[in-house]
Design a protein that fits this description.
Chains A, B: Keywords: Aminoacyl-tRNA synthetase, ATP-binding, Cytoplasm, Ligase, Nucleotide-binding, Protein biosynthesis. Two copies of one chain form a homodimer. Chain A is of the alpha+beta class. Chain A folds into three domains: 261 residues, BirA Bifunctional Protein, domain 2, CATH 3.30.930; 94 residues, Anticodon-binding domain (Rossmann fold, 3-Layer(aba) Sandwich), CATH 3.40.50.800; 63 residues. In chain A, 35% of the residues lie in helices and 27% in strands. In chain A, the strands form six sheets. Chain A has a seven-stranded mixed beta sheet, sandwiched between helices. A five-stranded mixed beta sheet of chain A has the order 16-15-17-18-19, sandwiched between helices. A four-stranded mixed beta sheet of chain A has the order 20-21-23-22.
């Protein structure tokens, strides 16, 4: 077969950009670092959104919408926050033909403006917890942009919650992290993740604790797929989010925030993509099955349309491709590039024998199936292939994750995979040393994989890797 | 009952703002003219989005996402467009800690940036029509902001399409206007609209034709609920959107654009709201039925939970309100304010007699219903009340729309309703005169209500009204 993309093994970053362009997922925008998400890519993002949104609502969180423009003074109220975000801000200085009295920041994240309104809406302990989420665009000026992974503007959801106690805030953040984020990534995206705690140096600006879910990409680098933050009382104090307790005293609330973004699109590509293009997990795929007319005539189009109807009736997301004027080979290559999990190819010869060909993108198999068995064959293949993608990604990660005892060994192992090393063998100084060699501490976990309450706990494990 | 809102008849604009605040639909944002859409309001907007989005997809249009920031130079390429939008632009001049070489405009609409990419993606007539839509936030600096109706930032969908011929572009724009917009507003929002053509003076900046759907608000003013534009070859020429025809010649495409926004939330409130709050059309309502525990004990909570389950199983969007510690009267007032179509009130006395009370928000009725009949009673009431809201709004508009023969009579009639007058009795000069008296030509239609091909057609009817 002709080479469609730069092979992954030859040049992974170029393979990634090739795939995005050839599969028509996205284009670079006119302003450096911005992107256009094309219909093929956006359809995937819409399915991510719908599934994530249902999980967020299931967790008792309500959606709302807060303004894009934030007065510059708001950001200054939380010292760590403004220090962390200042270098990345885009600023509106003129509007309506005039210079503004106070410049407006285009939101890089919304803790500040949402904090302002939480303060307004919360009076009593009865108003807590207040659980909000918004789907929005945010802007962070990027010096080294890369499509989906790091763009000046990106789409995301940001959850923001306020609680009466630290324990309640912590429990909520952990619940979302595990039951929304980790479950979403593993069940829908078929991407296995390691949940853990960030070190102080990697924390969100203004947080007291940042939790992450980390995934291994096809080049063994790590990608942070989502984060959940405990914000302590930092924002509650900066924005005066107080409530009267049952006992009548006035207390500051405890807040959290958590976010996932179009960056997950990049992770999806780099975990599941191969030299022929994207491979979409069936549960995520906007089109699960493409029924293709190989060649028109001899009842082929009619048989293909009938199969489409049967699959649709069985709840499969199916598309009929009867563009007989476009060469079949080109259509098949495009379907592979875009990651359609199953192609059902209907041609005159097979059809005469009562068969059609089922081509599975995920395991690469291609076999004739009696036309009457298609619905059963397709639905069980979709289920098996969802699991297979996950299993393969997990096996890939496990094969490339090694347990070591020293910082030196960890940095070395991180050149070709992930290293698990006792956090006591790294520490703040070791983290700095690793960073100097382009290796970062991705997260800390307990020895049993559990989430630490603090980075001071004994016997913690650190994951070290190169990363995006 | 205690007065909850300023009565509509006393001060309509104040009633509107009161309702938005008391029903917790939205708040003013920190930057003048911006708004925060609160969970109660956002849940309504989400349902609008979902329904509109399905209709847009049904029309063959694909979603995509284009950048928020547009190079200032893009806007200048289409002369009318830049002239129309310049006074309303917000401009980013600094980003990443530096002054930008070229200022960036925060999109007021996306014809320009989408035109740039259409030019890139369209090669041949086979690539046409190209039918795109995006859900996004846009910014237009407003001097006289009003929540939902005119805000500096608002949420909307903007469709952008490119076609090989003027006829195809026109047919598409009309199809969306009638089968997406008008159908959505009448079927989902229960808001009757008059579709028509805007005069030259009221056209979108850069369009060759703007079509509108106009609705009469509760104070008899008109609100433009959505618009669809034929853009001729204006943007195709400015952005060089060309295609090679079947005959091999290179041609400019014909483009359209069409949009609806959170402004529809304002229309919904002003069409259906009354002195007790919002009245939501059942098909739109996020919560169709609130099952309320009037007083706990004697099996009331259990009976209410069972009713909730039965209604849910019947496909009704239902919420159980068992907050027995909050006075029943307050909960009922809140449900009325937020427009919940039906309350099923479960109290010990009724329950002992085998009944519950069904309170219908739309016709104000309240009656005891045997508990075994609830599912049937509720589902038929939801259906009837959807129709009733539409019928009432249509009757209201028809009673307040008069046919007159002269401009003077039209301007007079427009003080208390809408005037239908021959366009020949108005003309450009008459339009200017009317505008001087705060009356505008909302749209032109044919005598039979049909959509004119041009404002030069004979026997056109003009609708004159005061407007938002």
């Amino acid at each position: 077969m002709a080479r469609v993309l730069t092979p992954r093994a030859e040049d992974f970053p170029r393979w990634y950009q090739d795939l995005i362009a050839k599969a028509q997922l996205a284009d670079n925008g006119p302003v450096r670092g911005t992107m256009v998400i094309r219909p093929v890519g956006y359809a995937i993002w819409e399915r991510m959104q719908a599934d994530m949104d249902a999980r967020i609502k299931e967790a008792g969180v309500q959606n709302a919408y807060f303004p894009l423009f934030i007065p510059e003074s708001y950001l200054r109220r939380e010292a760590d926050h403004v220090e962390g975000f200042s270098p990345e801000l885009a600023v509106v200085t003129h509007a309506g033909g005039k210079e503004l009295a106070e410049p407006l920041v285009v939101r890089p994240t919304s803790e500040t403006v949402i904090g302002e309104f939480m303060a307004k809406w919360v009076d009593s302990y009865r108003d807590l917890p207040l659980l909000l989420n918004q789907w929005a665009n945010v802007v962070r000026w990027e010096l080294r942009p890369r499509t989906f992974l790091r763009t000046t503007e990106f789409l995301w959801q940001e959850g923001h919650t306020a609680h009466a106690t630290e324990a309640d805030a912590r429990e909520h953040a952990r619940d979302v992290h595990k039951n929304v984020y980790q479950a979403f990534m593993e069940e829908l995206l078929a991407v296995p993740v390691v949940p853990g705690r960030k070190t102080k140096g990697e924390r969100f600006a203004g947080a007291t604790n940042t939790m992450t879910v980390e995934a291994m990409m096809g080049d063994t680098k790590a990608l942070q797929m989502g984060t959940s933050h405990e914000l302590g009382q930092n924002f509650a104090k900066a924005f005066d989010i107080t409530y009267s307790s049952a006992a009548g005293s006035v207390e500051h609330a405890w807040t959290t925030s958590w976010g996932t973004s179009t960056r997950m699109m990049g992770g999806l590509i780099m975990v599941h993509g191969d030299d022929n293009g994207l491979r979409l997990p069936p549960r995520l795929a906007p089109i699960q099955v493409q029924v293709m007319v190989v060649k028109a005539g001899e009842g082929v189009t009619e048989a293909a349309a009938k199969l489409r109807d049967e699959l649709k009736a069985a709840g499969v997301r199916v598309k009929l491709d009867d563009r007989a004027d476009v060469p079949f080979g080109r259509r098949a290559v495009d379907a592979e590039l875009q990651g359609v999990p199953i192609r059902v190819e209907v041609g005159p010869r097979d059809l005469a024998a009562g068969n059609v060909t089922v081509a599975r993108r995920i395991d690469g198999s291609k076999s004739p199936i009696p036309i009457g068995d298609i619905v059963g064959a397709v639905t069980s293949a979709l289920k098996a292939d969802q699991q297979r993608l996950f299993d393969d990604a997990l096996a890939f990660r496990e094969e490339r994750t090694v347990d070591v005892k020293t910082l030196g060994d960890a940095i070395e192992a991180a050149q070709t995979g992930w290293a698990r090393v006792p956090w006591s063998a790294v520490g703040d100084a070791g983290e700095k040393e690793a960073n100097g060699k382009a290796v970062t501490v991705r997260c800390l976990t307990r020895a049993d994989g559990g989430m630490p309450d603090s980075d001071e706990e004994p016997n913690l494990i650190a994951y070290l890797a190169r990363s995006y």
